[in-house]
Design brief:
Layout (H helix, E strand, L loop, with lengths): L1 H6 L9 H18 L16 H10 L12 H11 L1
Helix pairs in contact: 3-4
């Protein structure tokens, strides 16, 4: 995540990894807020009863097969629940 912060233009080269990560998350969160990107799925009309269908669609999408980390249906479900 430190590399992401550097690419985002933050001056975090000399910071410990955890501080760099925190600064990166704060900066990106503020940027997304400034440009009007909703923070939660519920803000764009997603309801909890839709999460199973979203999880199934994510598993059907071939893109996740090329993700550097393997993703299970449980992983996707957790991501969606957290994003609610």
């Amino acid at each position: 995540i430190k590399d992401l912060g550097i690419a985002f233009g933050l001056d975090i080269v000399g910071l410990p990894a955890t501080e760099a990560a925190d600064a990166t998350v704060v900066a990106i969160t503020e940027f997304l807020r400034e440009i009007g990107i909703p923070e939660r799925l519920k803000e764009v009309g997603v309801e909890r009863d839709m999460l199973e269908e979203l999880t199934a669609k994510a598993m059907e999408d071939g893109c996740h097969l090329f993700n550097p980390r393997s993703c299970s249906a449980g992983d996707f479900r957790t991501i969606y629940q957290t994003a609610m």
